[in-house]
Amino acid sequence: KDAVEISLKDIDQLAKSSFPLCMRHMLDKLRENHHLKHGGRMQFGLFLKGAGLKLEDALAFWRAEFSQKVGSERFDKEYAYSIRHNYGKEGKRTDYTPYSCQKIISATPGVGDHHGCPYRHFGDENLRAALNKMGVGGHALEEIMDKVKNRHYQLACTLTFEATHGVSCDSGINHPNQYFSESQKVLRA
Ligand code: SF4
Q1: Which of 21, 77, 108, 127 is the most buried (most CB within 10 A)?
Q2: Which atom of ligand 1 is the closest one to the Cα of 21?
Q3: Is the pLDDT of residue 3 over 90?
């Protein structure tokens, strides 16, 4: 198995090179607000787990941000449990699976939520700005916006992958963790 393990210190750099837009966005918001609401903690937390972030690193990662907002005591009391829970260390000890694109696209993020799929849930201007920030412009950007207009969100994400990696992605994107591992495959080749 060509599993990648990600460590705490590499998260920001890996986000830039290999995270799909949905996950980059949540990392940005977490760094900015030192907080993510439940839907974001689930979607992003399970993605990081699927990308190979170990439980201890996950706790340190969330703690470093949340403690700036709610204090470390409250983090330990109210939030650490759910992270351990996601890793199957609490409650029913279910090993929770990272969300697929289909599940993320069908989410209904409310005000102050940052989970969901940007291709589906961002407005036109925000999406264009976010794609520009990833270095996507010109013809490629218009093609992506065209897919979005026709509600082909995963195809839009696939085109973004292709534009940012300079290779074709014949399988198409159907899972954020697949996006990540395909990206690592290309970049480590
Ligand atoms: Fe994330 Fe999937 Fe949407 Fe891409 S298509 S941004 S991987 S949810």
Answers
A1: 21
A2: 6
A3: no
